[in-house]
Specification:
Blueprint lengths: L3 H18 L8 E5 L5 H9 L4 E4 L2 H10 L6 E4 L8 H7 L2 E5 L2 H10 L7 E6 L16 H9 L4 E7 L8 H17 L5 E3 L6 H6 L4 E4 L1 H4 L6
Parallel strand pairs: 1-2, 1-8, 2-3, 3-4, 4-5, 5-6, 6-7
Helix pairs in contact: 4-5, 6-7
The protein binds pyridoxal-5'-phosphate (PLP).
Length: 225
């Protein structure tokens, strides 16, 4: 069993020191604990040690944990590939979606999000460096998409998200620049740059990440799905 409390402390320390090194306020970086393939009790333990934001990739698995942990005030982030026939579950059960990469997904999420709830926070996923991956919109499509997504009721466009290829830290700088250009050109106040995972936290924070998604460094190796 990994020592979740100790791992959390180490990840928080790493975020803190990297933010300081970059001349940034450590409080400007939110840690999302990614629990895919991990049991609900592991998430509960992380919660007991102060973790409040959790990310999940697989909807059926996530629903089970959201139910099991419904006694805890958790902020749930959906970070997996989203099919348009699954948007209702996400709109009803999550607080954030990081993987919106086409208008149709946004339109469905907005239509399916109850106006009685707080708006669903979304990030526009950008395919920043991987032409072979289908996830994420092309950087040159991002302006039009951000403009359209920002107008949808029941959603709040918070910023951009990307999963660059391992070792490509230049991609973090490019994503940060794209976010600034979109914000300036469209007069949008985007406050979230969702980038950085266990292996590339430091480079992401140096480039301006405000939200890192960390799984293995907290929970240990993933269980086989
Ligand atoms: C699994 C996953 C993570 C966490 O990855 P680790 O390398 O375990 O930290 C972060 N973001 C996304 C989108 C993921 O699918």
């Amino acid at each position: 069993m990994p020592n979740i409390a100790e791992n959390l402390t180490q990840v928080r320390d790493a975020i803190h020191s990297q933010a300081r090194t970059a001349g940034r306020d450590p409080a400007s970086v939110t840690l999302v604990a990614v629990g895919k393939t991990q049991p609900a009790r592991a998430l509960r333990e992380a919660f007991a040690h102060g973790q409040r934001d959790f990310g999940e990739n697989y909807l059926q698995e996530a629903l089970g944990k959201i139910d099991e942990l419904s006694d805890l005030p958790i902020t749930w982030h959906f970070i997996g590939a989203l099919q348009s026939n699954k948007t209702r579950i996400v709109a009803e059960h999550f607080h954030w979606v990081h993987t919106v990469d086409r208008l149709k997904l946004g339109e469905r999420l907005s239509a399916q999000r109850s106006p009685a709830l707080t708006p669903l926070n979304i990030c526009l996923q950008i395919n920043i460096d991987d032409e072979t991956s289908k996830a994420g919109c092309a950087p040159d499509e991002a302006f039009d998409l951000a403009a359209a997504l920002s107008k949808l009721p029941n959603l709040r466009l918070r910023g951009l998200m990307a999963i660059p290829k391992p070792g490509n830290s230049k991609a973090f700088v490019e994503l940060a620049r794209l976010q600034q250009e979109i914000g300036a050109r469209l007069s949008l106040s985007l406050d979230t740059l969702s980038m950085g995972m266990s292996a590339d936290l430091d480079a992401a924070i140096a480039a301006g990440s405000t939200l890192v998604r960390v799984g293995t460094a907290i929970f240990g190796e993933r269980n086989r799905a």
